Amino acid sequence: MQQPAGDETPQAAGRARARAIATRSSSLSAVVRLLILLLLVGGGGAIAWTATIPSQDHVIARAMFEDRDGTMTIDEVTGAAFAPVAPILTRGYTPSATWLRLTVGPADGGPLVLRIRPTYLDRVALFEPVPGRQGVWREYVTGDRTPFLEREMPSVTLGFTIWPTGPATTYYLRLTTTSTSLMHAEALVPQVAALRDLHIHVSQIFILALLLFILFWTASDFALNHDIVVGCFAINQLFFISYNVLIMGYGALIFPNAPAGFVDTLTSVSIIAAPLFSLLTNRLLLRQFDLIPLARWGIDTLLLALVIAFGLLAAGATQQALKLNALVVALIVLLLPLMAFGTRREAPPGRRVLRVFYVIQAVALLLTMLPILGVLPASTWNLDANIIHGLLSDLPMFVLLALRSREARERGIEAQLALDLTRGQLELQRAQFEMQNRFMAMLTHELRTPLSVIRLCVDTAKVAGEPRRLIEAAFGNMEGIIDRCSFADRMEQKGLDVVRAPVDVAAALRAAVAASSEAARVALQVGALPSVTSDARLIATVLHNLIDNALKYSPEGSTVEVTAAAEAGEAGPGVRITVENGCGRTGVPDPTQLFEKFYRGPHARTKSGSGLGLYIVHGIVDLLDGLITYDFIEGRARFSVWLPCSALPSSKTMTICEPPSSTP
Q1: Looking at the DSSP assignment, which residues form a beta bridge with residue 101?
Q2: If we measure between CA atoms, which residue out of 183, 63, 167 comes closest to residue 120?
Q3: Hey, which end of the chain has fewer CB within 10 Å, N or C?
Q4: Coil vs helix vs strand at 88
Q5: What is the 3-state secondary structure (H, E, C) of 293-357?
Q6: Where is the chain membrane-spanning (predicted)?
Q7: Who wins on pLDDT, 434 or 229?
Q8: Is 291 in contact with 302 (CB distance < 8 Å)?
Q9: pTM for this one?
């Protein structure tokens, strides 16, 4: 049948939807690649531009002294023994106060900007000598615990304006912080300091643009697919963006009138929350890879440690909380290879991709955390190590989830196509089934009238003897086929009404044997049977079809054994009826197709039949909440029907019925 031009088949609609999804995914992937390329090129350009900015650091010498109790005054410190120190101070997490002595050369009589990084240091005090007054010092304070409007220099970076004189001027910086004591101080002319601040702004714009893009993609993907891994990563992105905004120094600008310590507390919360949700995202992602127990235990332990860090932060032990957080991040270095190579099952985007990204993260973390913990000397890039580490952790996870999402979309398209194909096939089968049922209903109805006319003519002709017997047998076969076709059609159309009432199974068996075509060949054995609450008419149909089938396909003259007994099995009390016969020339049927509609064995076509008898039996037994099984044991076919009953009889006496001597 030709499909009308204006109609659309389910398969065509499915293919159209799949093409639309694929087109949108391809367009989105192209936009993603373009944006990432622009951001990377812009960030690389900003870094290259920074390399062209001259340093012109006027600090001649640096020395450090540790005030363990944090109680020494500037007058006491000036007489202490200072030790030379590298340009970047690396002290790790320490409760001590750290004094840094700077010897600064003049700048042709003009001011210098004493520029201090990173911006998350709690409190940095500058002690500047008062010209012409020996031993007198002015004190200025900055840090992320100092409100922006109270800072000596209005900038996102920490700093002071100084006026060195003579061949050199000595300044003292006192650092106290709950974060890592990592500090770099340089004395620059204002123009160079402004260029470096401008570079920071440009770089941070690109970083924040990249992070916001990742957040936008993550939120969009989660809204589309409701993937819990992507959802957790979106929360991680929110904390990581907050962390970057605060760690870059913008917290003081956003909350200029906030009370002292407010921005510092927000920074500490974001510092701990970012790795917590990052680790949780990895934990959820790796579930589909079937992670080994040791790696799962490691992730869960570190997650617990971060929860404890939050508890310490809430209790006011900020430095202990941040130190524990840094230790957890450092331990992730050891855990990442175990996570990468401890997977036992392949999953999107693939274990090989997973291992590459986890190794990159491990190396980046190692280079980042060791200077922060004070284990290794720091370099210039360690001043932004927290941001760099976050990006090197964030970008691989974003790429992993993007690859995972793309593969999930491709699988979804394939599944949609397969679903549409299956729906089309089911629709075709349903149409064929309905056509077949209509044909069978028409055929059975239209054949009955011609058969009645033929029978009437045969009766009028008064045919007798062997011809009469053959004619009656043919009539019986044809009417049996018509009845079974009609019965099967009603069964499939849910047109069989089950009228439940007490049924005497033994009496039903005797009646079925007596009504069979060769009752003399049937050996019936019936035990003491309970009453079964079921449909007597349907049970009679089951017994008639099973006995008729056994007689038809067993060797001529052989005995068909029919037994019935009460049984208490796993399904409860019931009656089991067994019909067993030998196999004749028609051979052994295929047990996988035995109960299918119209199935007949390859050698059974020499016998008259419709292939509906066992199909009807199976349908009726299911309708009566029973079970039917087939076994082929030692050359004999055995059909067993189990019907439920309420209780078993108390007596188990067996009644044996011998085969009748003649056909009734």
Answers
A1: 63, 172
A2: 183
A3: N
A4: strand
A5: HHHHHHHHHHHHHHHHHHHHHHCCCHHHHHHHHHHHHHHHHHHHHHHHHCECCCCCCCHHHHHHH
A6: 30-51, 198-216, 228-253, 265-285, 297-318, 324-341, 353-373
A7: 229
A8: no
A9: 0.56
